[in-house]
Amino acid sequence: MSAAITPLNGLTASVSECTFTYMTQRANTLSTADARRPVVAAAAVRAFARGGYHGTTIAAVGAEAGISTAYVFKLFPGKEQLFVAALDYCFEQIEAALEAGAQAAQDVSAAGILDAMGDAYAELISDRALLLLQVHAQSVADVPEIGAALRRGLERITRFAQARSGAADADVQRFIAFGQLCHLIVTAGIADLDDGWAGVLNAGIRHPRG
Amino acid sequence: MSAAITPLNGLTASVSECTFTYMTQRANTLSTADARRPVVAAAAVRAFARGGYHGTTIAAVGAEAGISTAYVFKLFPGKEQLFVAALDYCFEQIEAALEAGAQAAQDVSAAGILDAMGDAYAELISDRALLLLQVHAQSVADVPEIGAALRRGLERITRFAQARSGAADADVQRFIAFGQLCHLIVTAGIADLDDGWAGVLNAGIRHPRG
DNA sequence: TTTCAAAGTGAATGATCAATCACTCACCGC
DNA sequence: GCGGTGAGTGATTGATCATTCACTTTGAAA
Hints:
2 copies of one chain form a homodimer.
Chain A: H1 33-51, H2 58-65, H3 69-75, H4 79-103, H5 110-124, H6 129-139, H7 144-165, H8 169-187, H9 196-202
Helix pairs in contact in A: 1-2, 1-4, 1-6, 2-3, 4-5, 4-6, 4-7
The first copy, chain A, binds a DNA duplex through residues 1, 3, 5, 25, 29-33, 36, 57-59, 67-71, 73-74, 78-79.
């Protein structure tokens, strides 16, 4: 029907093997599977963010990406690997945002850089998809491949925050801990509450969509 | 078949309306539905902790409780309300543990009490079911009833920690934030890792099963 | 123009699961 | 012993979903 082949919108994608360098054709042409995979992974982030791993169908991911269910299975061997690809993509985005935040920091002390990274993270997750996917991933981390992907992502951002800011271990730990508190505030819908107890948790947290 | 009517093992249960006071019969007699509900809720905590909301069948909850699937539906109107009952039960246990910890505190300063509550929490969640249920609840908090139950529980323990310890708002916030970090460490399986990055996150956290 | 491989799809299939129903059995007051 | 009420179950239903398969379309090279 209205197949609407969307021409990889600005997605740089890690097209590492460019054996077909001259094949930089026009848009609207069929894309190669390798180029399409990251686009579908990005769509999977949005779809899985809505319903979680068990609550999201492959059909929903296909619809989000504008392709058929069957083709999702041609691009990824199964649901589990698709979720892992989405999670990897998620942490890629986060590290990039932290780097951008660090680069934009006014105060270049360790604490200043860490703070700027916090701001950048709050900005990044203003659409909530990246945040929700992390929470859903925690929920199914007992699936071995997903747990491994989660640890890989956490290692990535922990190491990055530490190395890029030069902050002390305790400060990096606090950075991550308050990130988790932020996740709780958003998922539980505490940000919008005015009660005293909610104020205790919300204090000083830069909320997405604030 | 092997119906094996288990006689409410030691579960005090809030049998609030005892219109049938004389009916304190023996064990091995059929239990009333009101007395059985909390027992099934406790079983639901364990079952849902394993698979999450979408990944756990009512049959699994029934098996955990030692009753048939059909009878679970006679005790609770549906899966959603059963999960909510499990979550309420979970936060009840947590508040009780915090109170016990506070009572056992050596140092009765605000910080000392908060610390003792942290120890008691670490002890409580050593079997991980209560911890995992909270993570799963975050994951499906967009289901209105479940989100409301989660907020209710968080309000409960935040208010309790604040009132019982008398600590400053910022310290209570930190208490909750590091609780969330603890959840991440356990679900992602970081506690067992030896790498430097994992050490940053693990530092000073009292791990369950440590 | 023909041809071939890769892109992409519609329609099954087989399993699983929430929810329902019709039923049996034990107890209690009479 | 009889009748009713509530405890508890096995079998079924209707829907949903991951995965597969057979099929069509497209683009470009020979």
